[in-house]
Amino acid sequence: MASIHEILNRQIANFSVLYVKLHHYHWYVKGASFYTLHAKFEELYNEAAGYVDELAERLLALGGRPVSRMAEYLKLSAIREASGTEDANAMVLTIAEDFRMISAELADGIRAAEQEGDASTADLLTGIRTSLDKHAWMLRAFAGQTGAPAAAPDARVRTV
């Protein structure tokens, strides 16, 4: 399993690439949903920027060194840049899938933090994950998709 430092740096990279992608979508969205999506993408890139800062500050508090260059972000990130050819619907579904992928990684990070006894990092990642799951659901609904995503982001079974 990856170290907490590696997990946090991966998420800093993910949210940094996502920030740029969302900005691109904000500027280039067209069509009947322009006003709705233009505002939504701005909301989401502002949220992503906040997560970059929170994750980096947590990593610094743990004695780590946050990645901070585009080359590092692109190397570490599971998120890919915008292609530049997406229509509005593809933008929405791409971001929903990006959120699902990050959510799955966050689930792994939460487990790693819990195993290390790092409740603060687990709590930080849980809060981010909760927000992403809600956004992904809303984006899929906006695009007319119903039900759960193709692969559940957290397949753990919990017993009480």
Whole-number average pLDDT? 93
The SSE string, one letter per element, is HHHHH
Tally of extended strands?
0
- H/I helix tally: 5
Q: Biggest β-sheet: count, sense, barrel?
A: none
Low-confidence sequence ranges: 151-160
Distance between the termini: 26 Å
Name the helicity range. Answer: over 70%
What Rg is obtained from the alpha carbons, in whole angstroms?
A: 16 Å
Q: What class, by secondary structure content? A: mainly alpha
What would you note in describing this structure?
With 160 residues, this protein is mostly helical. The protein is 70% helix and 0% strand. The protein has helices at 4-28, 34-61, 70-76, 88-115, 119-142. The longest helix has 28 residues, at 34-61. Residues 151-160 have low confidence and may be disordered.
